[in-house]
Design goal:
two-stranded antiparallel ribbon, Rossmann fold, about 15% strand, binds S-adenosylmethionine, 12 helices, alpha/beta
Length: about 280
Amino acid sequence: MSSVARIVAEFAARPWEAVAASDLGAALAVPTMLTPEEGRLYHWLGRRVAGDGAVVDLGAYAGGSAARLLAGLALAGRANPVHSYDRFRSSRMFWARYMPGEPLPETDDADLLPVVQRHLAPWKGGFTLHVGDIAGTRWTDGPIEILSVDAAKGSALADHIAGQFFPALVPGRSILVQQDYLMAVQPWLCAQMVALRSQFLPLAHVPKVGLVFLCVAPVTSEALTLAQVDSLTDGKLMSRVREAAAWHEGMVGRGRFKEMLAQIKAHPGVRLGWQMRQASARAKG
Ligand SMILES: C[S@@+](CC[C@H](N)C(=O)[O-])C[C@H]1O[C@@H](n2cnc3c(N)ncnc32)[C@H](O)[C@@H]1O
């Protein structure tokens, strides 16, 4: 069996489902927007890392994804550096929903950094927090073993993330988690990945909306140019979504892609998830 076939079989068995709450240890107490299964996946991914490259967490919020990755790495005795990126700001609404135990800030756009530093204190020295807009980041820290993308809420940022981080993925080894992959209001993600189908192999759908990929070929600048999504017309974006639906046949039901097509049709030219969501809410009255 080739090493790629071995990894495909490994993920098809969904071993993260067997991760026990006790394995998560201190990470269990760190608030997260991840579903419980997604949380177990992140922990298990941390545990299975083979190479010495970095683990990158794009969109950290209160530190939940980073904590689960760090706990997995610690359990495996691995010291891979974890890099978490976020603006580290929160609205009062999200703060109240995800951190009901924390005193509610007086205003929106509250500073999350002190809370995240406290949440990740058990793994001090194992992580770096990169504060600011991911659109302004450059990745220069070598190979990446695990890349979690939970911040590509617009097509321009999806292009920037691919351009900076995908070339650092190691073929045959690195794992990419597209956390929002099946969100109806982020159709550029599947449009991007289907154009990179020679470089990435889908491994698993992890409910609700995440897809896990194995990097199987180097992501070159030529491949990135062909995979750009911000410049696509609505028509081109829709045809890429249809291609993605066919690509994921057997792993993801067609309904998810139909919802994406409906969102593009209903919101011509819109390339930000929150704008699509807001317009849909307004239309519903
Ligand atoms: C869904 S949340 C991440 C949840 C997190 N992974 C967890 O485990 O709970 C998405 C995060 O992406 C961040 N984000 C979105 N766009 C960003 C940008 N352009 N620059 C920096 N952070 C961004 C938001 O601040 C938010 O905290």
